[in-house]
Amino acid sequence: MTPDDRALVDRFLDMMAAEAGSSRHTLSAYRNDLERAAASVASLGGASANDLSRLGTQWAELAPSTVARRSAALRRFFGFLVDDGLRNDDPSAALPRPRLERPLPRILEKDEVERMFEAAEDRAASGELASVRNLALLELLYGSGLRASELVGLPRGAVRPGQPFLMVRGKGSKERLVPISSRAQEAVAKWIEVEPGSTPWLFPSGKAHLSRVRLFQIVRAMAADAGITPERVSPHVLRHAFATHLLSGGADLRVLQSLLGHADIATTQIYTHVDSARLVELVNSRHPLATRTR
Fold first, then answer.
1. Is position 147 annotated as part of the catalytic site?
2. Are residues 180 and 252 in the same domain?
3. Options 87, 123, 171, 212, the catalytic residue
4. What is the pTM of this model?
């Protein structure tokens, strides 16, 4: 990458951090994609439509998701150059736009989630420290739809008695209010009673908080306790279950978007497809005509 291109990329990323509130992970991903593109053109900032068209040819063997991500990074970069008066034209129309089929998220049925709770409650009744903590984790994952990173990073005072919501810092350091059920409040209160409280984290581990990897392991162990194949369950699967079960219960899509912290409602709309897919499956398996033969 030329010094001029590097200066433009740095300026672009500064804008993304300041105006869009992009996280360090997002900024790193943008930088990586822009540096890869710069390695294939003489000047990234001065690239023509023909230069970008040749990039699409070079990316022919890449996965459609990778091509889509790199194209999106370049489109945003060139849009920034035009907006800041650093270019008079935007050549990004020459970039490929692969058609992506979004996979439907894996979900659990309501009775499977209930089995996980029953097993977790039975273990927590013993008063064992880890079991009490695990029940609180499960209540927050399924009851509030938190991301794994949001859950493990909760401060000790996040859940307050009598306050039916908590403040969560999500992607891009954006904050949102998340409702918390009375069941989850009770489970967290019991956890705080037995946890020594020597760190500022609600779910401590050593000198820091519980890691996402450890949370993943805990959730899979709870699934196994409930007789569910562990490979089917993860913290994100429980978040999907939260969203899907709320939607099937009549929740408004905009409300669901707010609860999940999605910047774009198109991300939330995937759950309407999940619900439709389940309805089709139900019709095909349970409808009186499903087993009729000629």
1. yes
2. yes
3. 171
4. 0.58
